[in-house]
Amino acid sequence: MKNRFLSKNASTPLATKLPTLITTLFSLLLIFATLFFGEHITNNFHDIWQLVTGSADRYQSIVVWQWRASRLFAALIIGAALGVSGAVFQSLVRNPLGSPDITGFNVGAFTGVLISIALFGNLYWLSVFSAILGGLFSALLVYLFAYRDGHSGFRLIIVGIAISATLTAFNQWLSLTVSLETAMTAALWSAGSLNGMTWSRILPAALLITVFLICAFLLNTRMKLLEMGDDTAAALGVSVNKSRLILMFVGVALTAVATAITGPIAFISLAAPQIARRLANNANVSLGSSALVGAILLLLADFIAQHGWENSTLPVGLVTISLGGIYLVYLITREGKL
To answer: Which residues cross the membrane (predicted)?
Structure first.
């Protein structure tokens, strides 16, 4: 009896670490496939070794380390930003449906970029700034309209859906009133894509995303206290409204910067925190796990977008929204049974 008890306890650490181990191995395999699988690379180990050691021919080195590596890094950093943003909002509203995809903050960021393109052309940093303003404006609208003697998570989601629908209609009207060239630029951007991602484009944005990620992790303790309820958080010395507004700003900023770089990418913010929570078998939403799962999900979706259809590369946003639609139906069905 004692030996059996000890044997059961001895297996517990392995069972706890197994999901992390599997996730890590899958991530490494996916990174390897993203870099070395596909056209322009012969895919034999000799050539791959030459690429790793820097002795490959110049063309293959450019393909792998300039084009594919920059796209891989963009998928990882943007996926992490979206995963953390989703975790922040799901924690604030205490509901798995409370992500920027559902509450319309990414649509608000899209509105900001669309107005910027219509008025000033496709200027990169102006688009980033406009996306943040648009996301904050939509968040402010949701926050104001949902307030009624405090904030209910369900009410925030419903108001967010309504604001999202209104902004979507405005975006469509604006697309019809601008010039054809501007409308085509906005349409291509709105699909959500990592095509044409370069180091010079992603590195400045990655620095900005890193700053907001650090802010999110510094606010993690406040976020955990807010999950316990406003009264409990206030009793423990947390300024509830101030903390919520700061967390909302950080979450919106992460979504907005990601949206400004790639266009709106759905599903990642919605699914990453919940998948991370189930992998960790934890009732709370973890920022670190959400960032990791978000990065893996976007990298996997981009790999499917590049290699899932012969002789064609789809925008990654089309892949994520297809998967996200299936996941959203499952999530709504599951929440309705609770």
So the answer is: 21-38, 72-93, 105-125, 131-147, 154-174, 202-219, 245-271, 283-301, 313-332
Confidence of residue 216 (pLDDT cuts 50, 70, 90): very high
Q: Are 131 and 259 in contact (CB under 8 A)?
A: yes
Long-range Cβ contact pairs of 177-181 (< 8 A, separation 24 or more): 178/117, 178/118
Helices (runs of H) and strands (runs of E) counted in the chain: 16, 0
Query: Stretch 26-44: mean pLDDT, rounded?
Result: 77
Greatest C-alpha distance within the chain: 78
Q: pLDDT per residue over 145-184, tens digit each? A: 877 665 566 778 888 888 888 998 998 888 888 888 877 7
* Architecture of the domain made up of 79-337: Orthogonal Bundle (1.10)
Q: Where are the domains of the chain?
A: 79-337
Provide the token pair at 85.
Answer: 């943003």
Give the DSSP per-residue string, 70-118. Answer: HHHHHHHHHHHHHHHHHHHHHHHHTSTT-SHHHHTHHHHHHHHHHHHHH
CA distance 269 to 273: 7
SS3 string of 241-279?
HHHHHHHHHHHHHHHHHHHHHHCCCCCHHHHHHHHHHHH
| pLDDT, tens digit (0-9, with 9 covering 90-100), for 203-213 | 988 999 999 99
Q: What is the pTM of this model?
A: 0.85
The DSSP output letter for 313 is -
Residue 105 CB neighbours (<10 A): 32
Measured between alpha carbons, how far is 100 from 95 in angstroms, rounded to an integer?
A: 12
DSSP, residue by residue, 123-156: -HHHHHHHHHHHHHHHHHHHHHHH-SSS--HHHH
What's the pLDDT at 41? 61
